[in-house]
Specification:
This protein has 480 residues and is an alpha/beta fold. The chain is built from 13 helices and 13 strands. The strands form 3 sheets. A 9-stranded mixed β-sheet has the order 5-4-3-6-10-8-11-9-13, with helices on both faces. Strands 1-2 form a two-stranded antiparallel sheet. Strands 7-12 form a two-stranded antiparallel ribbon. Strand 4 (174-179), helix 5 (184-191) and strand 5 form a beta-alpha-beta unit. Helix 1 packs parallel to helix 3 and helix 4 runs parallel beside helix 5.
Length: 480
């Protein structure tokens, strides 16, 4: 009798457990399904109803391909490759196009919203859809590809798009938004653009989906300020490789350099729409603001670059940090100078020839201990490229920085974008007669001033960052 009662109680408990499990599973699936529905319009298809069609190669999202075409070595090989920079990109082979290598741990399990967001990102990258192509079916041979680096500052991005809308001849451009954060509001804003061709791409190793794994913050990563001896005892990740100042990686800082270099490589090698583009590619950011003649002036600068032979020019820059914003005597003038990261990093444009020059120094770019992409570019210009990079920069800026609250902002003072935009609009209005000059002239050539190699800021000592960086835009033969 006692045994029968015990079995009866066990049966009831098992039944209740099964009912609760079924309830939780159905609730989770219901929640995920609702979230999938909210993302379908963004990816341009029914993400949750793809039938037998699967996303290609989820582990290599930057350039999705069928898994059988990729051979990936284990993590021991990755560490060996990372420690030996001569072989840092030889741990992945592929039979066709370039691919970003899979150096991420294979045991990551994405669940809930993270899984849906990742699939939406990969689907957008896989489709490479150009919007507004029916309205703007043809672009001229001199068309400029404009790449906008976007994080999640919607207010700034809206100002930028409004300024682009007012630019003359913008309908001839291809506008590519490169995101490192998935936001329905930002996606909706981008999809509302109706004045030129547009495309979206997503940095595939975003912190939004890799929160607790490299390249995000692994729970076993070494704390930033821990001493190396203590890190060795703890056996935390990459304890052998702090930066030159003895600090370990800070995820929020290193990801900006990762995203910038990924899009820089991807636009020249990974996108069907741009991989054969021979003209200009302009790199701007979500907190920039352009003048109505920026597009026309950029094309005029490129014509002048090709026409003049007395001075070498690698980069065209629309912006300047010079406080003198007088258009009256400067709107039709440009200088050719040695490129300086602190002066010439705003509104940079270059063509494939310059990109190919930089490819000879990719290894140095990816291993240099500075988390800033522009300081790193300054370093390879000074030490790796012979001669160093030269820039043609307008004396009267056609692009402005309105994002006072950037990566180094410490929270002091208010970030008032509206006020800054009002000031710029007022400047443009009072300078209207000096915009769109008929001719563009170079200032007399002066003796070039070579800059000293800047002291690195550190923050880029982790060999995992070096290895991941080296995979961006990797050619088919595994060599740079």
């Amino acid at each position: 009798m006692r045994l029968r009662r015990t079995l009866y109680k066990l049966t009831i408990l098992v039944g209740l457990g099964l009912m609760y499990t079924i309830y939780k599973v159905s609730l989770r699936h219901s929640t995920d399904a609702d979230y999938v529905d909210s993302l379908r319009n963004v990816a341009g298809r029914d993400i949750g109803k793809s039938g037998n069609r699967e996303l290609h190669n989820l582990h290599n999202p930057a350039n999705p391909i069928p898994p059988e075409q990729v051979k990936v070595f284990g993590r021991d090989k990755l560490q060996e490759a990372s420690n030996n920079s001569d072989h840092a990109v030889k741990f992945v082979h592929r039979t066709s196009k370039p691919v970003v290598a899979d150096i991420l741990p294979k045991n990551i399990t994405f669940t809930g919203k993270n899984s849906v967001i990742k699939r939406a990102m990969l689907e957008v990258n896989h489709r490479q859809e150009i919007f507004n192509s029916e309205r703007f079916p043809q672009r001229s041979e001199s068309s400029v590809v404009i790449v906008v680096m976007v994080h999640k500052r919607l207010e700034y991005l809206r100002f930028l798009i409004d300024s682009l809308r007012k630019a003359r001849d913008i309908d001839d451009a291809l506008l590519i938004f490169s995101h490192d954060f998935y936001s329905e509001e930002i996606n909706a804003l981008v999809r509302s653009i109706d004045f030129c061709q547009t495309m979206q791409i997503f940095y595939p190793y975003s912190l939004q989906i890799y929160e607790n794994e490299f390249p995000g913050q692994d729970p076993n990563d070494c704390p930033r300020d821990i001493k190396r001896d203590r890190a060795k005892v703890m056996k935390c990740n990459n304890w052998e490789h702090p930066d030159k100042y003895g600090h370990y990686r800070e995820v929020s800082f290193v990801m900006t350099k990762h995203h910038w270099f990924w899009k820089f490589q991807n636009v020249f090698t990974g996108l069907e729409a741009t991989k054969d583009h021979q003209g200009l590619v302009l790199f701007i950011e979500e907190d920039h603001y352009v003048t109505p003649d920026f597009y026309v002036m950029l094309k005029n600068m490129y014509k002048l670059k090709k026409r003049q032979t007395s001075q070498t020019v690698d980069i065209l820059t629309l912006g300047t940090y010079d406080k003198n914003r007088n258009f009256r005597d400067r709107s039709d003038k440009a200088d050719v100078l040695v490129w300086h990261s602190s002066k010439h990093n705003m509104g940079m444009a270059l063509d494939r020839k310059t990109w190919e020059r930089i490819q000879t120094c990719v290894q140095e770019f990816c291993s240099y201990d500075d988390y800033n992409w522009d300081w790193t570019l300054q370093h390879i210009s000074n030490t790796c490229l012979k001669p160093p990079l030269h820039v043609m920069v307008l004396k009267a800026p056609r692009i402005f920085h309105i994002g006072e609250c950037g990566i180094h902002h410490k929270g002091k003072g208010k970030c008032d974008a509206d006020n800054l935009v009002s000031q710029i609009d007022s400047l443009v209005k009072t300078s209207t007669q000096y915009l769109f000059p008929e001719n563009l002239e170079l200032s007399p050539k002066t003796r070039p001033i070579r800059s000293k190699d800047p002291k690195p800021n550190g923050g880029w000592g982790d060999v995992r960052d070096h290895a991941l960086c080296m995979t961006y835009g990797k050619p088919t033969d595994g060599k740079l």
